[in-house]
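Subject: for your reference before the review

Hello V.,

The reviewers asked for a structural picture of the protein, and I figured it would be easier to keep everything in one thread rather than splitting it across files. Below is the amino acid sequence we used in the manuscript, unchanged from the supplementary table.
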Amino acid sequence: MCSAERVSLNGTGGSKMSLVSANKVETNVVELKVSVGAEEFKKGIEKTYKKTVKQIAVPGFRKGKAPKSVIERLYGEAVFYEDTVNEMYPEAYSKAVEEAGIEPVDRADIEITEVSENGFTFVAKVTVKPEVTVKKYKGLKATKTPVNVTEEEVAAELSNMQERNGRMVSVEGRAAKDGDNTIIDFEGFCDGVAFEGGKGEKFDLKLGSGQFIPGFEEQIVGKEIGEEFDVNVTFPEEYQATELAGKAAVFKCKLHEIKEKELPELDDEFAKDVSEFDTLDELKADIKAKLTETAEQNAQAAVEEQLVEQVIDSMEAEIPQCMVDRKVEEMLQEFDYRLQSQGLSLDLYMQYTGFTAEAFKETYKEQALHQVKMRLALEAIVKEENIEVSEEDINAEMEKMASAYGIEIEKIKELVPAEDIKLDLAVNKAVDLIKDTAVVTEKKPAAKKKA
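And here is what came back from the structure prediction:
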């Protein structure tokens, strides 16, 4: 974050919530001065009194029954000020932001400057969306790669289908090799002492997957079923568990089972089992058609990327660091969600790989900056071209989302603000405008070398 919130109390006037001033104090930072008048403040104090009176003990009164005036005489007239201010300033700030016509991209730094029976004032310093200029986005040039799906690519996809439809079978009479799935027990020791999280029983480990720390899986290769053995490794210097970082460890292991994948034959029966086709040739033709469609989509996406890169290059803006930091956090969270869908957690993944949260964030920074720039550039085009999105477009998109997630459209309306969908659709239209006005030529295939 670029900033944090703080509240301090001190004496003001007026009659209602109002924006006193809005000034740009530095690049992408606006300072708002906001006033909440006596009438609104009095109403707020009354609400605070009703909310807190049950927790206030006053001699001579049953708990929760003391009048506000008595409590104020006993504890001072400002007894309800701080809670009231903290309750009221968020709404006052939101109204001030709307009135000032700014778009905050981070939490505001709030400082209460005056508080009295006449109300209160505060200053909010907030980072806002930067001013963006895109110099060129029409008539751009790009090249498109011609689509040509080869028989080798079809064979590779067929092999992938064969692999996906294979079944794991136990094998005996040979040692473990790279690519095998093994069932092992293990327990880790540092300096002869077992460490937390270093023990597993009947653990399914694919050799060569890189699931464990470097050097572990390689030492299982060559071992036979029933064999007990030591695996000697050194934890990475950047290991998540700092008490183990850089330390040598010994894992006491036992190999219980070796499994390998048995692949089905590639024939007409295979085609019938894995698809709606009766013959392998029909399946191959379908694979080629789908690969061609995907390749065409990829080629179009590559063209779009070329064009958008040119738009970004022509953009002028000073990007607030907090926008990049927030995008990094979003990307890290998305990665965590993907891990969870595979039955892992980010913490466990980092423990196995030796990555830290900071190291992850560092790897995402460049990509995050690029995404922030792209979005800002496209939003600037939306504004420049006055691109509009109809209610029909928004409803159609909501229906598409509801269908994709298998939930009611009303739930989509609850979860996703219509304004967010509207802006996303407008940005998509900006991309379409860039592509529709671009000059795209097909890349010529490379000339074959003469023998």
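For the response letter, the relevant points are probably these. The CA atoms of residues 308 and 446 lie 26 Å apart. Residues 1-14 have pLDDT under 50 and may be disordered.

Happy to draft the paragraph if you're swamped.

O.
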